[in-house]
Amino acid sequence: MTAPDIFSHRKHWAYKLGTAPELPMSRAEMDLLGWDSCDIVVVTGDAYVDHPSFGMAIIGRLLEAQGFRVGIIAQPGWTSVEDFRRLGQPNLFFGITAGNMDSMVNRYTSDRRLRSDDAYTPDGAAGRRPDRSVTVYAQRAREAFKGVPIVIGGIEASLRRIAHYDHWSEQVRRSVLVDAKGDLLIYGNAERALVELAHRLARGEPIEQIRDLRGTAFMTRGRPEGLSDGWAEIDSSGLDRPGRVDPHPDPYAVSPKGTDANASAATPDGVQVIRFQPRPQRTDRTRTVVRLPSFAQVREDPVLYAHASRVFHLETNPGNARAMVQAHGDRDVWLNPPPIPLTTAELDRVYELPYSRRPHSSYGEARIPAWEMIRFSVNIMRGCFGGCTFCSITEHEGRIIQSRSEESILRELEEIRDRTPGFTGTISDLGGPTANMYRLACKDPRIESSCRRPSCVYPDVCPNLNTDHAPLIRLYRRARAIPGIKRVLIASGLRYDLAVRSPEYIRELVTHHVGGYLKIAPEHTEAGPLSKMMKPGIGTYDRFKELFDRYSREAGKEQYLIPYFIAAHPGTSDEDMLNLALWLKRNGFRPDQVQGFLPTPMATASAMYYSGRNPLKKVTRDSERVPVVRKQRQRRLHKAFLRYHDPENWPLLREALKEMGRSELIGNGKRHLVPAFQPAGTGLSPEGRRRPGRTAVRNRRDAKTQP
C-alpha cells in the first residue's frame, strides 16, 4: 500500500502570503492577513483551538501548508445563514464537521438526557451546536452560497456514511450524505483525500467528476462517471443461501473433439496431447464493488441490517477492501476503499505544522475544558486494532497503527515546555486511542494487507502481531530525560492484554508513569458480554493486576487500578450483572460513575442492539440471537448493580434479587450484596423514581424537555 506523499504537491499560489498566526474567524482578521477571500472555509461544531488534538486545526493548518487560505467558522448560529456568510464565499469548498465528537453523543447521555455542559465550548456552555450538526451546517452553508461545493467529514459524517441505526430516534436513518446533500463525504483520517481534492478543485476540475479518491463517498446513479469500464459487482444485498455446488474442473479433462480450438487432440502419429485447463481468474478487488442491502431493506429488516454490518466491517482493511455501494431510493451511496495510512514522516509533518497550541484569541479568558484537559499531552499514534464492538475508533481511524517518530514526539514535548501557558513540568499523557500500541504492527506486511480479521487481539493475540514494547519503553525514558520535564503520566486507555506480553513495560509504567491510580477497562467479568464486546477474559486482568501490584511494591509506591465497566451491553443478562456486582464487592471496588452502553452509529455492538443478531458470525435467519437490554427499568437495574453500594439503588436491587431467586444476598453481613434496611430519605421506588421531593420535581420537569 503506497500513495504519493501528501506534501509532494506543488503549492497553491497563496503560499506566498505566508503563515497565519491563527486561522481567521472574521473578515477583520482576513484583512490583517491581506486576504480578499478564503479558498476553503471550515465550519465546525467545536470552539476553534489551534492545537493538533483538534480536527479543524489539523485540517486547516495542513491545507494552509499546501498554499490555500483557510478560514474557520466555529459554532455558528444555525437558525439563519448570517454566520455562514461571515468570511464570504469560499473559492473552492465548504468543509463541514460536527467537531471532535458526534453531536448527538456530545449532547445526550446514553439514556437520551441532555448533558448539562459541553467540553468543546467556551466555559463549557451547553447548547452551542444543533442536533446532527453536519446536516444542519451543510444545509445552511448551501443556503448561504448556492453552487459552492459542500464537503462533509469528521467523526459524525464518517460514522454515518451508510444507512445506520440512530439510538436517539430509535430508527435506521439514511446516509448523512443524503440528508446533508453533500457533494462529497470524506471518512476516516482525511488528510490524503482533502489535500488531493483541494489541488484538483484549484486546477478547475468539477467536484462531480472527482470520483476516484480513496476514503470518500458520494451519491450516484449507476456506475460513477470518471471510473473506467470493467468493474464487477458482487451482490450482497441478501442473506447468503446454499446454492448449487459445481465440481472443481479437472485439469486433465479432454474436451470433445471439435468443441474447442485449444482442446486436447491426437497428433497424426497417434500421440495424445493433453492441454491443462486454466484456473478461473479471480475478480480484481481494485475493480470490484460490493452491493450492500439497500436503505429500505435494512430499515425494514433487522436481520439484513446485521448482515450489512458484517459485510461492511469485512471491507475495512486498506490493503484488500473493495468499494461498496448502497441504494437510497433511485440513487446509490458509493464508498471508495479506505485511505492509505500516513507514513511516519507524513504524520510527523502533520503534527509539526505551525499551530499556536491555544484557543483562538477571540475567546479571551474563557475556559475551554477539552483544551485544558489535553494541552500538556502528546498524540504519539493513530488507529486501533483492538476491534472492540462498542467503540468507533477502528471504523474511523482504521486498524493499522500509524506512529510518529521519537524525534518528532520529543520536539513536541519541548514545544509544550517552551510555549504552553501554565506548564509546570508534568506531561499529562503520551498516547492516543490506546496507550501501548505504539509501533505495533503485523510481522509480515503481506499478511497485514490481506487480513480480514476484525481484531488482532481477540479471541487471543494474533501470532502474527508484533507485541514488542521496547520502542515505547525507550520513548518513555527519553521523554523523562528532557530538561524541564519533571514527570510524564500515561492517561490513555491501556490494553492490558498486550501489556502482560511485556512485563518490562509494566515495570516501566508502574515505576515512573502512574500518578497513584491507573484506569483500565476490563468492561465486564462474564464470558457472555465479553464475547460480544470482543474483550479478553477477566483472567487477563488478574495477571496484569498481579504484575501491577508487584512492581508497585518494588518501587515503594502505593498505587491502585481503577477498572471501568459497561452496563447493559448487548449479550448481558441480569445474572451477568449480578456476578459482576459480586466480583466488585469481593475485590473492594465501589465505582463512583458508571457507563451505560450507548449504541453509536455503525458500531458492531449497535448492530447487535438493533437487530438482536450477532454480526461477528455469518448472519442467517436462524443465526445466534443476542439478548438486548432496551427497557429503562432493566437499564437502570444494570447500572444499579455496578453501584451496589449506593443506598439509592437498594430498593431496586432488593426487588430484582427476589425476582431472580437470590434473596440470600439481601442482609447485613459481609456475604450480602445489599442490606435489608434502608436509610431514611434514600432509595428509588420500584418504578425507578425518587421519593417525592424538590429533586424529584426538578428531574420530572427536565424530563419533559427531552425529545
From TrEMBL:
Keywords: 4Fe-4S, Iron, Iron-sulfur, Metal-binding, S-adenosyl-L-methionine
PROSITE patterns: MTTASE_RADICAL, RADICAL_SAM
SUPFAM superfamilies: Radical SAM enzymes
Keyword Cytoplasm: no
TM spans (from-to): none
UniProt-annotated binding residues for [4Fe-4S] cluster: 384, 388, 391
Cofactor note: Binds 1 [4Fe-4S] cluster. The cluster is coordinated with 3 cysteines and an exchangeable S-adenosyl-L-methionine.
Keyword Transmembrane helix: no
Gene3D superfamilies referenced in this protein's UniProt entry, alphabetically: tm_1862 like domain
Cofactor(s) recorded in Swiss-Prot or TrEMBL: [4Fe-4S] cluster
InterPro entries in alphabetical order: Elp3/MiaA/NifB-like_rSAM, Methylthiotransferase_CS, rSAM, rSAM_horseshoe, rSAM_sf, UPF0313, UPF0313_C, UPF0313_N
Region (Disordered): 229-266, 674-707
GO MF entries: 4 iron, 4 sulfur cluster binding; catalytic activity; iron ion binding
Domain Radical SAM core: start-end pairs: 370-636
Domain of life, source organism: Bacteria
Pfam families: DUF3362 (PF11842), Radical_SAM (PF04055), Radical_SAM_N (PF08497)
Family, similarity comment: Belongs to the UPF0313 family.
Protein name according to UniProt: Uncharacterized radical SAM protein YgiQ
